[in-house]
Amino acid sequence: MPTKAELKQQAKHVKLKIRTGDRVQIVAGKDKGQIGYVAAVSPKEYKAIVLQENPDNPEQPLPLNAVIKHRKAKYQGERSARIKLPAPIHISNLMVIDPETDKPTRIGRRKEDGSLVRYAKKSGKTIKDAPNIAKKD
After folding, report:
1. pLDDT of residue 130
2. E strand or H helix that includes residue 71
3. 92 pLDDT exceeds 90?
4. What does the longest C-alpha to C-alpha distance in the chain come to?
5. Quick one: which of 88, 123, 118, 91 has its CA closest to 104?
6. Are 95 and 48 within 8 A, CB to CB?
7. Average model confidence (pLDDT) for the chain?
8. DSSP secondary structure letters along 84-121
9. What domains can be seen in the chain, in order of their start residue?
10. pLDDT tens column, 39-73
């Protein structure tokens, strides 16, 4: 039977400062300095998947922090391929882009009109929640 401390740890609600749809800059890793948007967030693992706009094909964004998967041909007429897949990146390696200055900034929380909102510490402006990019119609 789990102890009370273990149950408390399991029930812990993780509150992240980065959300789906935020414009972020990668500050560490192989894609350092690249700017993209957050496509998915995993709060329990403290990781996010970051994609970048593709000027050639807007329907298919480019993955940042990508890994290459080698797919071998299974049939005689098929070709082998190298597929780029997005790999999750740790939240600590991302910084949200300030909406006013377009520079990376830290995020804080404050109460406005009785609710908690996120704000950019560099400019003090409130960060609006981005529209959900994954649910495009």
Report:
1. 63
2. strand 66-71
3. yes
4. 65
5. 123
6. no
7. 88
8. EEE--EEGGGEEEEPTTT-SEE-EEEEEETTEEEEEET
9. 17-120 (2.30.30.30)
10. 999 988 899 999 999 899 989 899 999 999 999 99
Question: Please, which pLDDT band fits residue 135 given cuts at 50, 70 and 90?
Answer: very low
Specify whether the CB–CB gap between 46 and 92 falls below 8 A: yes
- CB-based contacts of 83, cutoff 8 Å, min separation 6: 68, 69, 70, 71
Compute the distance between CA of residue 83 and CA of residue 69 in angstroms, rounded to an integer: 5
Question: Contact at 8 Å (CB) between 120 and 107?
Answer: yes
Looking at residue 10, its amino acid is: Q
Task: Report d(CA 47, CA 87) in Å as an integer.
Answer: 9
What amino acid is encoded at 123 in this protein? Answer: S
- Per-residue b/e over 79-110, b at no fewer than 16 CB within 10 Å? eeeeeeebeebebebbbbbbeeeeebbebeee
Q: What is the pLDDT of residue 91?
A: 94
